[in-house]
Amino acid sequence: MAKTLEEKIRITYIAVAVKNPGYVWGKKNWSFSAHANYANKFFDFGGNTKFPVKKKHAFDLPKKSFSIEIDVTGQRSVKIGFEATLHALGTKIGMGKVEHTLRAPFKQIFGRIDTVKNFSVWMNVELLVRGRSGVHNPNEFFASRDTHGGKIMTTVSGARVARWVEVCPVKPVPNATRKWPVRPLLPPGTAPAYENGAGLTSITPTDTLNVVTNPAVVPKLSRADADFASCAKFHVTYARPKSLDLEKLRWEVHSLGGGRAEFHGGNTGEDVYLRGTRNGQILLEAKLEGARVASIRATVMEIKKIKCRFTIVNGPKGSTTLAGPKDIVKHLAVANRILRQAGIWFVLDTDKTVSDGAKPTKIPGIFRVQVRRGITRNISLAGFPKATQLNYRENLMNFVYIHSCAPLATGGRILGAATDFPASRAGGTISDNGTPSSSWIPPTGLPPDATAKTNRMKLLGRRQRAGHPKLFAMYITNACGKPASEAGMFTYGNTIAHEIGHVLNLRHRNLDMKNKGVETSGHDGIKHPPQENLMHANNPASQAQDIDLLQVKAIHRSPLLR
Amino acid sequence: MIAARLPRMVLLLLLVFTVGMAAGLSAAPGTSVTGETKMADSMSNSETLFNGLLEMANGDTSKLEELQRRLLDPAVLDVLDSEADYETEMPEDLYVAGLIQALMDRGDAPAQKVLSQLTLAPVWADQDARIELLVQALATVRPATPDAIVFWDKYSQPEDGFANLTIDACTANGSAPAIDLVGRKLIDSKHSVEERSGWLYSSVVPHRNDETLLAMLDALMGSPVDAEIKSVIVDVIFDHRPEEWYSIHTQVFPPPRSELSAESAAIVLRLADRLLQSDTLTDQQREAVVASKKQIEDMLEEQS
């Protein structure tokens, strides 16, 4: 055991999601620099490549430039950092940096780091064992620390002295903090954890219906309709030590107030598929050798189909929408894959009735209308836009594509906005007191954490123009980007899903929601998850994807779902 | 197809070269005119041209004059941003926006003169995006020049797609001629009540402490302007109800009352007294006026 091995890690910055590209006029490019330092050694990497950036768009970093292998033999810690710089108008503007300290024994990490305002970056730390990287044999030595003051031999997985498994209902799983989630103290030397909490970096119209995993809603499906693409998929998001044999997990469904569900394709392993059989809440438990090691709560319900129509509102040349009918079908498909976790699905209304000079397109449910420039370009930040009143039908969802909204006072433009919707049938708030708590809002109720409390969420009140009490509407703008690109489809789809949330009376869900130090009225009063909820006010599609049980309750109390 | 494009490509390269030389730069090395690399070259040419023009924007007066000449040349504008760029990009994301930003940041008389000259150039009106950029850029020219007022007046017609930006630029400018134009537009019934109310909620609220603006609004309250507009003026001076006035993503916030000058406070208090003696206020408005009046009086007392 006295053998000394070389100890190396590889740090890779994988992708960046832009929240705020920098509100300066002109072409905006960002460059990134990364560094690692210890013991007076300083390593710079990342290069000088500039990347064109767009609000709420994510992109991959070239692995060749943004990856570094460093020898950490005998080091107790390594400081790493990643910094973004905006290049515009011949100058450079710092867009923020993230810095972390990796401490021995070094662990494999895949995670996302957020700056408050401007960007998130995904990173990976791999342990290299004698020149190889990736997932290791859990019994293989990672490093000997014999020659540096200790007699401890660390293996990649460590001894199986304790275990901890999580099936987190929030995807992407928020970064762990000192306070969340509450985990038991495992004995020193317990090997690192297995983590599978990443969110989706893209959703396409052809993805499976259940692409969003660990959903709040399990769809009620007949046996004939159930398959691996339609059933709700649940999986382990965290397990420690990583040597745990997750194939030995056995899952059980328990009814909470009447809900029933069945497994599709077996009830063992790291992930399982569920089809709902009776409406109501369920508790899905994972057991290992007979002991409960993880649980997640969900609601069984039929996927509620909601009729909708789209109207493309075009002005004269130069003031038209970038998206056409075929793009819209794809955007709706992406939005539906996000919203299915809340038990809703939008279908194009085939009614051919038109008004305001609208003309049908070749796709039933999608129309075009020609207007004066001011109806579609730089529309007002205040009041009710004329555009969302055009060609609408009562009591179904009316989506309107326009050119743009006037710039915000803070710079930049919004991607879309919910404009017309009545109050929720639930009133001004909605609450939940189940265990585990919705979104694992602390306390979660999962031991060793304290008992879950009642969580009360504020709802958005009615927003209705005079004389149109049955209008449900929102608009989407060209600021979403190129409508046919994969990144564009994800942004359009995510924007539609987010604004639908508002139409269904959801407020914003952020850790912090302040304007000049004062909490604004748009917050739902719950600060968890901090970054990952679909209703986050600013975060890009690759980060803001989740809908929780509280929100599902609220959504299904909207008059639109009556 | 390639042959048909050649004259344009030659012109493009010539432009990049001459602008680059004028700015003390060299042309992009390795430029190609093959079909396969056209897109990349075109982008690189735009950037090279932009860098040259940006250097002029930051240069001495003679450089600025040269920049003005270039920016009035349709061929230069076409190379800077293509027709496709104008269709797919937001105006503020175009190369030309970067040059306008540089002139705004510079803010001296020669730079402001260039901005003014651009408002007179028919070529700038060929693209909605360029009009938008100029409308907003003129907010930095104080006091607003007669040319700016004419330009803003032209681009604040009913539902023209520019009026929201123009009124915003005028209130941000804040000079007497600009605020006077806002006043004229607010009483112009060619604009719908909804359109004019929108200006008050989105463009007046962030500047509701400004003395010139308050004086104009105070005067409007004594004019025969529509009762609906007067009611909105009361709202925006004395109240703030973001969830009612805006969508959740477009909320606009007023500056703190504590930043109100003595002169502005006097206008608001005078208006408050007049309103409280009238019978035009709703209960909600009366409450807001009373609360604001008390807040300002307390603040003034504390200051004294």
Describe, in plain words, how this protein is organized in 3D.
The complex is a heterodimer of chains A (562) and B (304). Chain A is mainly beta. Chain A folds into three domains: 128 residues, Sandwich (Immunoglobulin-like); 146 residues, no CATH class; 229 residues, Collagenase (Catalytic Domain) (3-Layer(aba) Sandwich). Chain A is 8% helix and 33% strand. In chain A, strands 23, 24, 25, 26, 27, 28 and 31 form a seven-stranded mixed sheet that branches. The longest helix of chain A has 18 residues. Chain A is globular, with a radius of gyration of 25 Å. In chain B, helix 6 packs parallel to helix 8. Chain B has 17 helices and no strands. Chain B has 304 residues and is an all-alpha fold. Chain B is elongated, with a radius of gyration of 24 Å. Chain B has a domain of 108 residues. Classes of the chains: A mainly beta (562), B mainly alpha (304). At the A-B interface, helix 2 and strand 28 of A face helix 2, helix 5, helix 6, helix 8 and helix 10 of B.
Explain briefly what this protein structure is.
The complex is a heterodimer of chains A (562) and B (304). Chain A is mostly beta strands. Chain A has helices spanning 325-339, 373-376, 486-503, 549-555, and strands at 8-18, 29-38, 41-45, 51-52, 58-60, 67-71, 77-88, 91-103, 109-114, 119-128, 141-144, 153-155, 164-166, 194-195, 217-219, 232-235, 238-240, 250-256, 260-263, 271-278, 280-288, 291-301, 304-314, 344-348, 359-360, 366-370, 397-401, 416-420, 429-432, 455-458, 472-476, 514-515, 518-519.
Structural class of chain A: mainly beta
The CATH architecture of the largest domain in chain A would be 3-Layer(aba) Sandwich
Shape of chain B: elongated
Give the biggest beta sheet of chain A: 7 strands, mixed
Contiguous uncertain segments of 5+ residues of chain B: 1-15, 17-43
Provide the CATH top-level class of the largest domain in chain A: Alpha Beta
What class, by secondary structure content of chain B? mainly alpha
